[in-house]
Write a structure and sequence with these properties.
mainly beta
Amino acid sequence: NLTDGAGRTIPYTDPTTNTVMARLGWNPLPGMRISAGVIHRDEQQVIPVAANTFDATNIADRTLRGTQYTLNFAWAPPATRLVDLRASLYRNDIAITETRILPNDGRRDGTTLETMGLSLQNTSRFSLLGWDRHALTIGVDGHRDEQAGRRNGAERGQYPDARQEVFGFFAQEELNIGPATLTAGLRYDSYESSAPGQRSQSNDRLSPRVSLAWRVTDWLQPYLSYAEAYRAPNLTQLYNFGVHFPVALTPRPIFNVFVPNPNLRPETSRNAEMGVNLRFRDVLEDGDSLRLRAALFRNNVSDFIETIVTATTTEQRNVTRARIDGFELEGQYESRLWFARAGASLLRGDNLSNGQPLSLIPAHKLSLTLGRRFLEQGVTLGGRVQLVAEQDRKPRDLSTGQLPPRTAPYALMDLFLTWQPPEGPLAPFRFDLGVANLADVRYRRASWDAGVTRSAFYDVGRNVQFRISAQF
C-alpha cells in the first residue's frame, strides 16, 4: 500500500500487475516499414466498489484484463516526394470483473469496453506556381467504441450497453514563402452514439485552421494562429447512471449518483494564439543551444462539457459559453555536459453564462530541470522542481451553494540518476534510479477537491524506483 505525504497508509492501493509486450518490425523496401505490436495486462486488486473513495464497507475483488493490438505501415519511397504515407490499425479490449467480498453477498459485476480504430494520412511535397515548398497532407481517422456492463447477468446501470462511432477527414496545406510559413487546414468530424432505451445522438461539423509564422532573423520567429475544434461527448458522459460513491452510511445511507445526460451536446471552440519562438546557438560555449517559446492564447468554447459534482449527484452538463485564457512559457538549454529545461503555465477558466469559475482548471505551475552529464563515466545526474500555486477558483455547489475547499500550493523536488557504462561487460546495461517527492511533501491535486466533500488522504509521498534495462 502507498503512503501519503502525511505518513498515513492509503488503503487499497496495492495491485498486483503483470504485463507482457511484444513488437515486430520489418523493412521490406527502402523507405518502407511495417510493424505490429501487442500489449497484454493483468491486474488484481482488492478495492472499494467506488474506486476513487476510501469506503471500507463496500469492497470488491477486482480483476482487470486489457489487450492492445496495433498494426502500423509507413512508406516514404526515396524516389518521390509525393508519397509520405502513414497508416495505423488498432484494437483495445478491456474487461473488468468485480466480485463483492464485503458484504459477501455474491454480487458480481462485469464491465467491457472494445475500441477499434484506424488512421491514414499522406503528405505530398511539391512545387506549384513558382513556389517549391508546398506540403499537402490529407488524411482520415475514426474509431468505434462498444461498452457493456452486467451485474449478476443483468444490465448494470452504472455502465449501460452503448455504442459510438467517430469519423474525421482532414486536409492541410503548408506553404513556405521566403521567411514566412503559412498553414491552412480544414477538418470534418462526425459521430453517432446510441444506447438501448436512451436517446440516440449524432452530429457533425467543419473546423478550419490557419496560422502564419515569420522568421524575422535566424533566432526570432513570431507566429499567429486561429483554429476551431470539435469534441464529441463520450459514452460515459452521455449514458452512465446509478451509484457513484457513498456520501454517508449513518444514520441512513446517502449516495452520490451518476445522472445520465443523453442530450449532452458536442463541445466546439474557437482558439486564437500568438507567440514567439527563439533559437540561439553558441550561447555559453561552442556547440550549445538555447530554445525559448512563449504563447498567449484564448479559447472561446460553446457547449463546454463540464463535470458537476454536487453533494448527491455527478453529472456532465453543457456550459453555453465558456472561456479559457492561458499563458505558456518553455525553455531548453543543451550543451555537451549540461542541460536545463523550464516550463510555466497559467490558466484561467470562466463560465460566462453564470459568472462562476470553470471546474477542474489546473492551478498555475512552474517546473525547472537541471542536469549534468559525466561522459567518461556514462553517468547523468539531475533534479526537477515543480511549483504549483493555490487553486481557489472553483464553482459553488449547485445544490448547497457551498464553495469547494481551496487546494493549497505545494512544491515538489525529484532526483534522477542514470548510469550506462560506455565500455566493459556492463556496457549493454542501463541503470536508472529516481526519487520522486524527495522531501515527502504533503500535497493534494486540485482535481481531488472539486466537490464540497474532500478525501482525508493526500497524494503519494516519497517514492523511490530502480530500473535495469539491457540492449544486445
